[in-house]
Amino acid sequence: MNRTALRMTALSLVLALASHGAWAQAPIVIKFSHVVAPDTPKGRAAERFKQLAEQMTGGRVKVEVYPNSQLYRDREELEALQLGAVQMLAPSLAKFSPLGVKEFEAFDLPYIFPSKQALYAVTEGRLGRGLLRKLEPKGITGLAYWDNGFKVMSANKPLLTPADFRGLRMRIQASKVLDAQMRALGAQPVALAFSETAPALRDGVVEGTENPPSNMFTQRMHESQKHLTVSNHGYLGYAVIVNKKFWDGLPGDIRKTLERAMEQATVYEKTIAQRTNDAALESIRRAGTTTIHTLTPQQQAEWRRALQPVYTQMEERIGKDVVQAIRREANP
Ligand code: LMR
Q1: Can you give the pTM of this predicted structure?
Q2: Which atom belonging to ligand 1 lies closest to the Cα atom of 94?
Q3: Which of 29, 91, 312, 319 yields a CA-CA distance of 20 to 30 A from 287?
Q4: Residue 154 domain-assigned?
């Protein structure tokens, strides 16, 4: 075959491939890193977002979910996001102070939300959107709030009155409000990464902790905790965040489709959060490793009294206006 014929053949092959999209662009990859087990509200919602995003973009986006601190642990993940090493996270609202956005620690204040409805009034309203906007100067876009419900306390002794906490080494997330919370109860707070918590409980480095049941059960913390109190003294929620440069750089139609996928994943997450935690508490009960206590109204009132000083101690750090606005919105 002479040179011209060869060139014509090659050209017609390229055109044929291109016409069948055989050279379709490589997909846009979103690495979604998080620190909890797949079978938790956040873990299942991340998978749901993956399914929706890939399906709704017709495969133009590929979401790679990395659960259980596989890729990055607590503190590392925020740095990785800002560097663009990952594109999406959903850290606990207790973990944003390293970014300098201390206002999110308001969500850690004891008993600040009387109900889920009160919480949603904040996260779904002007206040919640305003808090997410505070992340923008840090190169981060906040997309949504995800829910993991109210926390319980655990240790190897019954925790029924504040006096029961005296001197206990209690693991907390790295939040100054949670540090103040444990000190108000007479305990010694120990901030550890989530991935280090279960081993620290097993080895006795810490004696107790707090978390929603779904996190306790999926990390098998109950196997090292003989007692659990359904205190619902505090809330654990998440902000789903992306690297702002990545997000703004997406084609407009792709970004709008991903926003819709995130909306649907968020609705899904909220519908499963409570029942996943209820099921986890039941699994802990059935495991027989842990005695589950509830507080009498008198005991609950005693916890509230002991924890009240946290508000005055933390108002300056979080912003008195933010705390008052949340309380107004959450208790109309
Ligand atoms: C914790 O560190 O206890 C939680 O923030 C983990 C999580 O992401 O639910």
Answers
A1: 0.92
A2: 5
A3: 91
A4: yes
What's the number of domains the chain is made of?
1
Residue 152 belongs to some domain of the structure: yes
Instruction: Look up the domain containing 155 and give its range.
Output: 25-330
3 is a domain residue: no
In whole angstroms, what is the distance from residue 237 CA to residue 149 CA? 7
Using one digit for the tens of pLDDT, what is the confidence trace for 206-259?
Answer: 999 999 999 999 999 999 999 999 999 999 999 999 999 999 999 999 999 999
Q: Which residues contact 274 (CB under 8 A, 6 or more apart)?
A: 116, 149
> Which residues make Cβ contacts (< 8 Å) with residue 251, sequence separation at least 6?
none
Q: Which of 213, 214, 219 has the alpha carbon at shortest distance from 194?
A: 219
**Whose CA is closest to atom 1 on ligand 1?**
194
CA distance 257 to 100: 31
CATH at residue 65: 3.40.190.170
Ligand 1 centroid – CA 57 distance (Å): 30
Give, for ligand 1, the residue of 70, 92, 179 to mutate: max count of ligand atoms closer than 8 Å to Cβ: 92
- Three-state DSSP class for residue 189: strand
For residue 38, the CA-to-ligand 1 centroid distance in Å is: 13
Specify the ligand 1 atom closest to the Cα of 209. 3
92 Cα–ligand 1 center, Å: 6
- Does residue 15 lie in a domain region? no
